Every structure is written in structure tokens, then in C-alpha cells.
Amino acid sequence: MAHRGSALSPIHRAATAAAFLALMTFPTLGNAQGAADSDMARANRLVEDAVRLASRGDTAAALDRLEQATKLASGLAEAHYRRGMLLARQSGTDLADMFKRRRAQSALARAIRIDGGNPHYFLELGRLRLKQGFMRLGAQRLFNRALRAARQRGDPAVVAEIEGELGDIYFRRYQALGHRHMITGDVFRFDTREALGSTNYAREFLESRSHAIPDAGELDLRQAEEHYRAGVAAWNGHDQATAGLLGILYDGRRYEEYHERARSFARAAPDNPRAHLFAGLGLWQLGRGREATRAFRRALDMMPAADRARVTNLSVIMRRSNAEAYGELTSADRAEYNRIYWSANDPLKLTEENEHLLEHLARVAYTEIRFSAPELHMRGWESDRGVIYIRYGPPPVIATFPPGTSQMGALTDPIGEGGRGVVTGDVMATGRITTVWFYPERNLRFVFYGPPGYNFARFAGEFQAYAQETRSVLPVIYDNVPVDAALDSVAIQTAAFRATDTTSATELVIFAGLPLRRMTEGVDLDEGPLESGLFVTDLLERSIDEQRRSETVVFHAERQFEQRTFVSYLLPGEYRYRVEARQPTTRRAARGAARVVIETFDRPIFMLSDVVLADRVAPREDAPGGRGAFFMDPNPAMTYAPGDEVHLYWEMYNLTPDSTGAVSYRAAVVITVQSLERRGFGANIVGGIADAIGTSAKGDDQVTLSYEVSDVLGDRDRLPGWVAIDLSDAPNAVYILELVITDQQTGQTATRRRIFRVTESDQ
Amino acid sequence: MRRTLVLALALAVVAPTVLAPSASAQRIPRKWLMTGVGMLLAGSVASLYAIQFERDIGGCSSVSCVVPVTIGAGAFLGFLIGSEMDRLYSLRYAHAPPMSLHGVELPLSVIPNDIVLGARTIFVTGEEGVELVRAGPRLERVGIRARGLRSIGPVTADSARNAMFVGTGVGLYRFPLRGDEPGALAHPGEISALSADGELTAIGLGPEFQIVRVADSIVPLADPIEQLSRVVDLEWQGKELLWVLTEDRLVAYRIAPDGTGEEAGEFVLPTIGRRLAIEGPMAVVAAGSGGVYAVDISDPAAPRQVANWSGARFAYDAAIVGNFVYVAGGPEGLYLTRLEEGRFTAVGLAREAGFVAAVETDGDFIYLLDRTGGQLRRIAARTEQ
Q: Cα separation of A77 and A107, whole Å?
């Protein structure tokens, strides 16, 4: 994980820089009453120097100046405080920083001894205590003293700061108790290894061997909320207090409150990108996608470049190999890749917003609220829980188990190995809360261990490897996004024809079957609006063609599919296309998408269009000149019921006439059954050509129908062909249809293939 | 020795209840009760020890040492647990004492969002449609209408025309009130509020509202009237006066028969308005984190704030019956407040009501919606002054 090991350093550096910025911004810089005293004056100048050096990032020199200042004027509290703060903010919770923390503590304690009424000193010492293991228990007392001092001074900004810290302390306590499950029956603990090895263990354990304890930790949660509220009341734009409060409101599904508070935060702190990020989360949760898009965009625009790069980094939701390649891209290439990724992953282009992108940003915003641990210099989106949340969304089931329970049997199993006692579990569980996230629909489970009192948890045991395995199969899911839950499929049949005008473009006809019956199933309306659209892009997701339609349609149709035809003129190349449909009243939608390779019909050789599979094809006139001269009922799903006739339509270009101006061609329709269970079937031409001379041949898995046609081309630039085939005794199966046309004059042959299905289902 | 022990235990348990003023009138502090329980449990353990005690093995192993130490530890532990319970209690009921609800309740089939009262029918809007509930001696489920519609907002019914109008994010739909006939789109656009006075109907269309006449179809009478922010609730007061609650103000409009409106007066809200309830000359506005505002609307030209109460952390909805104002406090439950002498006084909080997201009244009963519990509840409205 990024927060472990060397990856910490940039954050660390950022924290140090932040510390110095804080140094810069504190209003008091030593009292001028000692100006007469030359040592005091020099010490004050050294403190000012230290601030300047710190702002340039020269930490060592700044510390040196502060040390000189404390030696010169040992009674200058400000020098001790700034030195202590600098050391404290540089240090982490590791053992390696123990001596640094001690020096910080001693400097801050000295500052307090000199000036016991300064809330900043208590606040900073309290924060330091939070990094000091068991000593963190004393942090609350220090914060309370700081609060009293701040209130006496009437400093709302510091009050908000301290209330935020106190809120965090209570909330961390709540986290150790929240979602608590009581284990019942004859088991003693949640077995992490079993949860990993046995597919159904987590489900069974959570369903039948434990039950949730209602209101567990409510007191701490309420106290946390009270403190956060007090912080927000003291200073509306305070980041930490507001983020804490927003987290509680969001977790409690108090979305209206969340939205109002986030909106107020964004107004009070318009330049704070986190405020807009959090506002976006609330708006998206309330289904206000357009406004959420604006809020997220504002947040991203305001973010420091490093944060923006992390928030928009897609590697977290990619398979590992892809993520590695992604990591090697330049920032410009990455931005372009991001654009392509989100465009391709937009579930519905018919809507203004990109629901998956919004959900991604909302998840990131939530991890920032919930899993960030400033005292550990850890951003929520980089934590183990944050990463899983971004990939798989909010876990439907959360359970926590106390450290004692995990320890029992985790270290020793008195019965195993002849009662000698063996290590059976994860020793990392010792003294840690076990948190289980369970996604029942996909049976995904993740277990984390975290120390009580810290907003920090890591994958338990081998769950990091499990998370990587899961990532390789399922890099990201958006099951919880409403549009995904109600997304159906559009059946599509595309057919390429030579354009009728003189351009070199190809006419791509898209026959779409919109599943209107399913989309309006169980809806108490007779009719309603239907939006549909065709979206064609190149492989880099640049828009090539976009067609949108809006109409009123009758619901409860008998037919499964409502057919719509789109025509797009495309130059040769490879494209992606989508056909989408959306019913705004019910918010149900459907889409179909695929790639298509467009070939040119501009060459002076005999060529064949794609074959259209239809339910009915009949000419409107005697010598039809193209598709427009036919009654055609295409079959977008290319699925037929047993006994249905299969109608084919195609166009032939550049047939060579003989000396009398007549053209002739030989058509062969080869139908092959693709099925494991094969039985013989037959086929006959039943329509489409009056003078069919072909024969019907029978076989076990293939039928060939062939015939010859002569016609006069006249002033037509193409010759349409059509035929209806009776597959009356064809079994339910998938079939390959191959149409082979041979120009009798030149002997040139062209072939087209289609796959269709015979089934009794109307899907 | 043993008699003394038993006597001490009995005293410890009984003392808090005896010392407390009246158990029924005032809650016994749990820290004392749990101290007694702790002493009792520890005393039982100590008694077992005392019974089986054979010889002193040194240290604090004699009965005279073990018994008081054990009981003391039990008492201390009980005190700590009880103190936590008292703290939780004081946080839960920081703004009002506990109150019990007595009435009838009905589990709902939809995940509910809001309730609207009709003449004899209650309309519960939810994610799966509008659930119709008949209010007799019991609450009875009639059925679900407007199935499949999403983002259902305001609802109004006109039994004379056998019509129910359901506002959504994309339009106003009309359904027959009786029977299972499907509905039809009556008016396109986002519908944010609805109110009918019999002849004229006011429709909130996001940041504007419009007066329409409802016949076989919806006939707009005049152009929509623009507001500075979203219209969230509408209430007719008589046939000519319409109160419009937007997110930032409560404004009175005099509506002419031709559907045009003229602003009469306004009351600017310091926070976001959510719902409006009117009884006589008093309007009550649920304003989210701003709490509840009581506004004197006897002079529509000059609506005047009478009182504000922000005891509930977030006021989702409010209903007024006489001097009593019921406030939907979301996860906190249902607050009952009394409005008198220009101020609100909290009467009680019913936590058992669940996540109260909406509250309505017909004057005799209060209907409240438990969003997370999925229940509709009816209680008798308090009437004593």
C-alpha cells in the first residue's frame, strides 16, 4: 500500500510543509514587551527566521534557529512551542520517531509551563499524545484544557479545531464498538483464515453465528457528533469538524442533513476543494447528478496537482497489469486515457452525467471523510479500506468483533495437536478490532484488523492477496448505482451498405430492438416518454455521430422489442457504437454496444452488402432499387421462434452485365447448426424469388440452398436480393448463415455471414 | 458477619430507590442503580467466597478483606456503567423528556418518503409508488398506485374527480383514485410541490410555480411565477391566498381567478425551508438545521416570526394542532412542543417512533412516518391547552 514504507515520505513532506505554513499563519510572534531585553529581541528574530526557513522547506535550519532561540531566551514560550510543534508534526507513530516525539513533548510542556493559558500549546501537545500509544489516553484531557483556554480567549477558530479533535477521539472510540456483532453458539471467534479459505464461511457466520448489537457505541457516536457540531457552530468553515459531522450524517443515512451541511460548508469555505468534494457526494446521493458533476469539477479544479493526480488516478480500479502500464504513462497521456476510460464506461450517454465517474468520485469523497487519519498522515483513498470501498462501493454488511474474541484461539488452540496448543490464527489480530466487510451478492468478503482508538485498519492475514486476486477478476463494480440496477439490453443488428450518394462513406444501418416491454413492466402508466439515441465514436472515444430522439410510446406492448432504426454514414475504419434507450419516468434504461469495422464499397469490383435478417422482407415495387423500396421488418435480436420464416435482404454492387444489359448471379445460402446436440433439419425457400431453381439439400448439421437469378440492372446502381427460408423442423439452436453470391459474368464471388438463433423464448 | 454483609447489600440496592424522589415521576439515575446492581453481584461472589473460606493464606485473602474489596469493585464498576447510561440518556433527551406513543401502526410495502392526507385515505409516497392506506379504526392497506414511477414527490387527490395527481422529477401524472386503471402524464416538467383548493391547483415547478385548473386535463391559467429558489411546499389559505415556501422564504400570493398572482408579503428564512403547515393564523415551517419556525400569518402582507425552536438537530417536517407542534426529528424520533407566549417549549421526545421523516395531521390524529422501519403510525393529537 502506498501509505506504507517509502511512499509515506511525500505525505510526510507535505505535512511538514503544512506545519510550517501553520507556523507562518499564527498571528502571534512573541511579545514585544521584551524588546528592551536584547536577548529576547534576538530570540524573537530567530523565531521569525525559523518561520521563514520553514516556509522554504529548510526544516533542519529552522529547528536550529528555534533551538538557539530557546537557549538565548529560555522564557520565550513561542520558541518552545514552535520547536515542539515542528518536531511533533514531523514525527509519526513509529518506534523510530520515539526520541523526536519526546523532544517535541518536552518543548511543548515547557511552553505550557511558561504560558499555561495558550490553547495552541495544549492542542499541539494533545495531538502529539495521539501518536504516543497508551499516552494517547491523556490527549482528551489536554484537548479539554485547550478548549477551556480557547473559550476564555474567545478564539472561535481554535475552538473549532479542538472540538474537531475531541470529536475525532469519540468517533474513534465509536469505531471500536460500532457495527459490533455478538457471537452466538459454540464458536468463540470469527476465524479469518476460514473466511478466506471457505467460500460460505463469512456468509454463514454473519447470518447464523452472530447477530448485530443494536446501538452499540451510541454514546461515543453522540458525543462525537456533539463535539463536531460545536466545532461547526464555532466556525462554520472548519474542515475537520465539518468532515467529522458529515461522516456521521452520511453513515446514518441522514442525507438531507448531509446535503444541507455540505452546502453550508461549501459556502463558508468556497476555496476549500474538500468542501466541494463533500458537497458532490451529497448531491450524488440525492440523485442530483448534474449539480454533483459541477461540485466535483470545482473540487478537482481547486485541488493541488498532487491531490488531483491521486483522486483521478485509475490504477486503483484497474487490474494490476493494466495499472502498471497506466502508471508508466505521462501525465498528459494519463489524462487522455482517463477521458477515454470514463467515456467508454459511461453507462448511459443519454443522460448528461457520467454515472460511473460520479460514483467513483463519490466513493473517493467518502473515503476521504471516513478513512483519512491526519495524525498518521494517511489519506482515506490510499488506505486498505478506502481502496476496497473505491473498487466495490459501500459494503452492504459490516461487522466488527472485539480484540478479545479474535485473540481467543487466534494464538493458541488448546485442543489441537493433542492439547499442546498451537498457533492457529493471525497474531496480528492481537489487541485489534476485526472488521468484516461482506458483499453478499457477489460473495466478496474482506477482513481488516485495526487498533482500537485509531482510524486505521489493514487487511487481515492473507486478505491483501485475496484483494489482489479479486481485483484481477473484478477490478471495479458499480452494482449500487441506480442506473446499473435497472439497465437492460438493446438487441442490435448492424448492416453496412454502399451509400446512395456520391460520398465514399459507408451507410451503416443499425436495427435496434428496444426492450420496451421489460422496461415498462409493472408500471401503472399507459404511455410515457422514451428517449433513445445512437452514439458512434472512434476507438479513442471521440464522438463521430450522435443522434438523439424523444417520443411518446405506448406501454405494455405485446412484443418484447420496440424497433428503431438508425443510419450513420461512416468512413472506413473501426468504431464503437451504442444504442441506448431510457424511460425517464421509471428511470429504467437499456443499451447495446459493440465495435464495428467499416469497409469501403468504393472499389470497382463485385461487392456484397451485409445480410439483414428480418421477420419480413417484401418489395414495394417491381424493380426495387434498394432498401427503401422494401417493406422490411428487421429482426434486431436475430432470434426466431420455431416455425418462423427467416427473411434475408442484401444488396449487390458492381454486377457485370452481359451484352444485352442483363446481370445474373448464383446465390447459395448455407445454414449450419452450431449445437452440441445435433439432429437433422431441412430448409426450403418459400418466398422472395419467384423462379427459384435451387434445391434443398438435407444433412445432419448443414443445409445448402442455391439458385440462380437473372435481371436487368437498368439505371439502378445496385441489385437488391431477398429470400425467405422456412426452417420449420429446425431444432432450437444457434445457426450460422452464409450467403455466397457469384457474379455469373465475371465469376467473382462475395460472401457474408450471420449468426442467428432459433428458440422458443422471446428474449 | 454474614448478617452484616446481607444487610449492607440490601441497603445498597434499596437506597437509590428510596432516596430517589419518585420512581414514576423522575428517572432513577442509573449510576446509583447500577452501583447497587454491581454491589449485589459482587456481593454474591464474595458470599460464595465467604462460605467456602477455610483459612487465611496471607495478603488480602481473608473474608474481612475480600468481601469489602469485591463489593467495592463491583460498586465502582456498576457506577461507571451507570454513569455511561446516564450520559447517553442525557444526550438522547437533551432537548425534551421521553414520551411514549400510543396508537396504531402499519408496516408499509413501499420504502416510504412522505405522507399526504386525503379525505379518508392516506397517501404514502415511496420508491415503489404510492401506497394508499385507509384510515378507519385501524390503518388498512388499500393498494399501491403509480407503481414503477421514480423520484415521486408531492401528491394530491381530488375525490370528486376520482383523481390522484403524483408529481415526479419529470412530470405530473394523473391516476384514477378508485380502480386499477393506469395513469397518464398530465403536465410535463419537474414537480416540486402541489396544493389544490378544489377549483385551482398550485404546482411547484422547481424555481417557479403555476396556477392551473384541473378538469379532464390540466389547464394552465397563467404563466409560471418565478422565485429566487426552489419551491418546496405550497398551501392555500382560503381560495385567494396561496402560501409558497421556497428554500429561502415563505411568501404570500394573492391569486386572481385568472391564475395570476401578486406577492403580498414575505418572511425570509435564515436556513433552508423544507415543509409548511398552517393552522389558522399560524404557519409552521420545518427548516432543517434551522429547526422549526412559527410564523404569524394573520396579516399576509407582513408575516412575522413568533418563535423558533432548534432542539431537534434537523427538522424534517412539522405539523401543528392548536398550541402543539409535532416535529419530525429524523433519527431522533418525534418531538412534541408547545407553542405559547411566543416561544416553543419541548414537551417530549418519542424515540420509539424511529426515523421520523414526515408528520401530518387531520386535527384529530397525528400520522408519522418511520422511514427506516417502514411504518406508518397514527397517534391521537394532544388537545389540552
A: 9
